[in-house]
């Protein structure tokens, strides 16, 4: 497969008719690039603060650590690594720049990093969602609710597992997925539907976690103020859903655009937003415990404090002689 050359340097494709490429000073989508830097910086600080709150709560307030804490820790590590890979691409000028103004070797390098980003974001997303499923399962001792959470967790594993294997084995040989020099003669699947499935399933599982939890909260024996606070807390999953929808809206028209290095910049921007929202929303269930420990007046109401203390442990019932079920940690239930 021959590639166009300029001054002895190979490029993936020639510029469209009427466009005069500037190889020394290529045009950049500075708006998206600068927005990505800002989103990464602000999002990293916010997500780190919320993540630190969850780590502290799990380590010192409701210790020992449980399985969802380990899942969430690994999720934060791998998703942070994915965000860093995106920033590395921006720093080296291979995102937000037209593909016909970037040397072929740089395009291959960028494709490899984005490929790696996708492969590590997927398990990070799965672990974060499973962490929430496990946490919610401990809060409400209801068989139907637990079955629904198991279904959501199973759907998450299966759907994202299919996406991961489709991305990893997208081409034969495997290296052809990022080494564009090998595309001639390689056998590759149609990958755009796979990326669409990734974004869609991210939104679907976020929606399931919200619509399963909110009706359950409304059945609890707690004041309407506490219910409103709990619903607002768990409805933050819509923020992650919104980021997933925005990424899908950007992704669909760009999948068939050959100028991949330019159009991917907006998609990766929304991927960073989505990953940060996953971390923040995944840290919120322990925020009430954290605030109750350091600032109990923030959560205090004029009503009896035991009402709030036991609300999530009873699922529409009343505490037995003022005691929680042995299957629930009293500190863990202070989330509203």
UniProtKB/TrEMBL annotation:
Annotated keywords: Membrane, Transmembrane, Transmembrane helix
Signal peptide: none
InterPro entries tied to this protein: Rhodopsin_dom_fungi, SAT4-like
UniProt domain Rhodopsin: residue ranges: 54-291
UniProt topology in membrane: Multi-pass membrane protein
Membrane spanning stretches: 35-51, 71-93, 113-135, 147-170, 195-218, 230-249, 269-291
Any one GO CC term of the record: membrane
Pfam families attached to this UniProt entry: Fung_rhodopsin (PF20684)
Protein location: Membrane
Similarity remark: Belongs to the SAT4 family.
Protein name per UniProt: Related to integral membrane protein
The organism of origin for this protein: Fusarium torulosum
Lineage: Eukaryota, Fungi, Dikarya, Ascomycota, Pezizomycotina
